[in-house]
Design goal:
This protein folds into 2 domains: about 80 residues, Roll (Ubiquitin-like (UB roll)); about 80 residues, [2Fe-2S]-binding domain (DNA polymerase, domain 1, Orthogonal Bundle). The protein is built from 7 helices and 5 strands. It starts with 12 loop residues before the first strand and ends in a 7-residue tail after the last helix.
Length: about 190
C-alpha cells in the first residue's frame, strides 16, 4: 500500500486590535483565545491564565467597555474592537483609584486574581458611580479570590468609588461613553 502524506498548513490571521488605547496589528492562529493572544503574542501578561473554563474571572478584560472572560473569547472576535487590560488601567505612573484602594486596604493578597477583579470593578464604576455593597458583590461575583475573604475587596471598591466621585473620574460623570472606558464583567 502506498502511504499518503497530507500536509496541513495553518495560516495565521492578521487582525487590527485596539489594546489599551493603541492600535496594533497582530498575526495569530484563528483558534487562539484573546487570553492567548494578549499573553503570548502581545506580551501583556497582566491578564491571568486561571481555569480556562470561565469560572474564576482571573482573565477578565474589557472589550468595548464590556467585561469579557478572555479565556472564552476567540481573539478573532475582537478584530477592530477596543480591548482594555490591567496594563492600561494606570495613567502612566499614576495609579487608578481602584489600584490605590486595593493596595491601601489590602484588597489584594497573592495578586493572581487582582487584575480580573480590578477590571470587573472598573466596569462597574464606569457605569454606576455610586454602587451599594450588594451591587459590588453582584458585579464581582464571577471573580474568585482564595486569599482575602472579599471584605477588603468590597471596601476597596467602595473607597475607589468615593474618590472617583470626588474627582469626577467616573465615565458617566465625565461624559465619556461607557464603551470607551468600562463595562460589566462576570463577578463573585
Amino acid at each position: 500500500m502506498k502511504s499518503v502524506s497530507l500536509k496541513v498548513t495553518r495560516r495565521n490571521l492578521l487582525r487590527h486590535l485596539r489594546v489599551n488605547g493603541e492600535g496594533v496589528q497582530v498575526s495569530f492562529a484563528s483558534y487562539k483565545t484573546l487570553l492567548e493572544v494578549l499573553r503570548e503574542d502581545l506580551n501583556l501578561t497582566g491578564t491571568k491564565h486561571g481555569c480556562e473554563l470561565g469560572e474564576c474571572g482571573a482573565c477578565a478584560v474589557l472589550v468595548d467597555g464590556e467585561p469579557l472572560l478572555s479565556c472564552l473569547t476567540l481573539a478573532v472576535e475582537c478584530d477592530g474592537r477596543a480591548i482594555e487590560t490591567i496594563e492600561g488601567l494606570a495613567n502612566g505612573t499614576e495609579l487608578h483609584p481602584l489600584q490605590e484602594a486595593f493596595a491601601d486596604l489590602g484588597g489584594l493578597q497573592c495578586g493572581y486574581c487582582t487584575p480580573g477583579l480590578l477590571m470587573s470593578a472598573k466596569a462597574l464604576l464606569d457605569r454606576e458611580p455610586e454602587p451599594d455593597r450588594e451591587r459590588i458583590k453582584e458585579a464581582l461575583s464571577g471573580n474568585l479570590c482564595r486569599c482575602t475573604g472579599y471584605q477588603q475587596i468590597f471596601e476597596s471598591v467602595e473607597q475607589a468609588a468615593r474618590k472617583m466621585r470626588e474627582a469626577g473620574q467616573n465615565s458617566i460623570l465625565a461624559g465619556s461613553p461607557p464603551g470607551n472606558s468600562g463595562g460589566r464583567a462576570a463577578g463573585p
